[in-house]
Specification:
This protein is mainly α and about 190 residues long. Helix content is about 70%, strand content about 5%. The chain has a three-stranded parallel β-sheet with strand order 1-2-3. The protein folds into two domains: about 80 residues; about 100 residues, TIM Barrel, CATH 3.20.20. The termini are far apart. It binds zinc ion. The site of zinc ion has 4 residues, from strand 1.
Length: about 190
């Protein structure tokens, strides 16, 4: 009888040990789960914060771009305002350009800009006359500030190719296009200067 009781006690102690072990494992699992929840939670918070910051930056950038565009539009409007407007008489003159009794000359300058271009621009400004400049891309690259001045002062800028080397220009149809496009690119760069 005593032996049996001892057996039961041992069994109970063993069972209690097993329960303790299970509890320990459960507690450890809960702790691990909590740690994981904290880590994941923190990451989620960081991502949300990051997204919000991103949105704020995007809005700021959009605002800056919008303001820059407004400034550019305003500058262009002011530039246009300074240019002579085509009047009704002007329109009629253009329509009758080859039949008109009135004698008129159109000033055009080829191959520029060169060292004498500033002098020409000064005189045109003094006389309040607009001219057409057939510019060479290779020269625009050398003196972009003069092309910018032509543009700002309301003159017409026309494409006269890039190199002026006929043997190159007329070597193929593609070469002609390349000359035209290269000159265009240089003019664009020049008139976008500040
Ligand atoms: Zn020429």
């Amino acid at each position: 009888m005593v032996r049996d009781e001892e057996d039961i006690n041992i069994y109970e102690i063993e069972t209690n040990d097993k329960i303790d072990k299970k509890k320990k494992i459960l507690i450890i699992l809960i702790i691990i789960a909590l740690i994981l929840i904290i880590i994941v939670g923190k990451n989620i918070v960081t991502i949300i914060k990051g997204n919000k910051q991103c949105e704020i930056y995007e809005k700021q950038v959009a605002k800056i771009l919008e303001e820059e565009q407004k400034k550019k539009d305003e500058e262009e409007r002011k530039r246009q305002e300074k240019l002579p407007k085509l009047t009704e008489v002007g329109m009629q003159n253009i329509e009758k350009i080859y039949k008109s009794e009135t004698k008129r000359a159109f000033l055009t300058f080829d191959d520029g800009p060169t060292d004498i271009t500033p002098r020409i621009l000064d005189i045109l400004k003094q006389e309040n006359i607009k001219a057409t400049f057939f510019v060479l891309g290779s020269n625009v690259k050398k003196k972009p500030e003069l092309v910018k001045r032509m543009y700002d002062e309301g003159h017409f800028i026309a494409n006269h190719g890039y190199s002026h080397v006929y043997s190159n220009i007329y070597s193929s149809p593609q070469a002609v296009l390349d000359e035209f496009n290269s000159c265009n690119e240089e003019v664009k760069k020049a008139i976008r200067r500040k």
